Amino acid sequence: MANSKLKVNHIQSNNHIMMHQRNDGIPFDATLFKDININRSAVERRAATLSGRRSIKKEWQAAWLLKAITCIDLTTLAGDDTRSNVYRLCAKAKAPVRKDLLVAMGMQDANIHVGAVCVYHNLIKDAVSALGKSNIPIAAVSTGFPAGNIPLKEKLKQIELSVAAGAKEIDIVVSRRLVLNSDWKGLYDEVAACRRACGEAHMKTILATGEIPTYTKVAKASWVSMMAGSDFIKTSTGKEIVNATIPVSLVMIRALRDYYELTGDKVGFKPAGGISKAKDALNWLVLIKEELGNDWLNPDLFRFGASSLLGDIERQLEHYVTGRYSASYRHPMA
Ligand SMILES: O=C[C@H](O)COP(=O)(O)O
């Protein structure tokens, strides 16, 4: 299709490597968040308006979907992960969209790749060898993922081992009991210790919001995680019964906006778990744009944690280019 070419300014190219300044955190100060009280119905009302408000069509939709790809932490976190499925995942991470589709969109030289590959510790070495010199970072889930119910000493050891094995990003899970008991200083100390163990690796802190009973606690846990030096806050492990939702994302995004206003530090956001449709990805990008602005719309500050989103995005891009939908089995990977 002649009109399927994207204009250069529809999407920035994706030659980035994690260059963003880190969040060093601030001393624990409960007065900064103790009065937070989130109005659940106001959050849910705002979230409900999101999908009907903006309709992104044609070349703009294609450009936003390519942008979404650059923000995916392409993930496999299964008990039966092997070297071969990690190799396939990494091949897809380096070339996430079929060449013919990129050529049709005029994007073959844009170096589109995903934001990171996310695996369990034992698969890091396979990801390192499969990704080669691609500059795509490896994110490892550590600290007793997904439940996090192991001693802190072991959590820190896991982080150190993952960094030594080549992970440039570490996704930690918080101890939910600290959040449930409102032990905010305990949570701060745990997250700050993890941050020290990460060294140069960027740290994403998973709150597992599906196991946190109120939005007020989600907001407070977000604050404490940022104060303790998290580079990203992340909704979910993908293993909770309820994973990423728009309302919980809104609560976390507003906490990081307030944290930025206070400290000048931009903390990233990663919704994860159950995001598998291109239209959901667009909703999250719109939410980020409306609440935080364009600064956050890049892989340094925004990621999707997703194992099966890429396949649907590629299918939508094929529809954009050819005018037809292919069967989903033609895009089986991710
Ligand atoms: O962090 C990423 C999640 O585990 C992925 O969840 P998903 O398999 O539902 O996409």
Automatic annotation (TrEMBL):
Enzyme class comes to: lyase
Q: In which pathway does it act?
A: Carbohydrate degradation; 2-deoxy-D-ribose 1-phosphate degradation; D-glyceraldehyde 3-phosphate and acetaldehyde from 2-deoxy-alpha-D-ribose 1-phosphate: step 2/2
> Which EC number(s) does UniProt give?
4.1.2.4
Could you name the domain of life of the organism this protein comes from?
Answer: Bacteria
Pfam families with a match to the protein in the record: DeoC
A Gene Ontology molecular-function term?
deoxyribose-phosphate aldolase activity
Q: Which reaction does it catalyse?
A: 2-deoxy-D-ribose 5-phosphate = D-glyceraldehyde 3-phosphate + acetaldehyde
| InterPro entries the record matches | Aldolase_TIM, DeoC, DeoC/FbaB/LacD_aldolase
Q: Does the keyword Lyase apply?
A: yes
Query: Any idea which UniProt keywords this protein has?
Result: Lyase, Schiff base
Task: Work out whether the entry's keyword set contains Lyase.
Answer: yes
Instruction: Identify its protein family.
Output: Belongs to the DeoC/FbaB aldolase family. DeoC type 2 subfamily.
Provide the protein name.
Answer: Deoxyribose-phosphate aldolase
Organism the protein comes from = Gilvirhabdus luticola
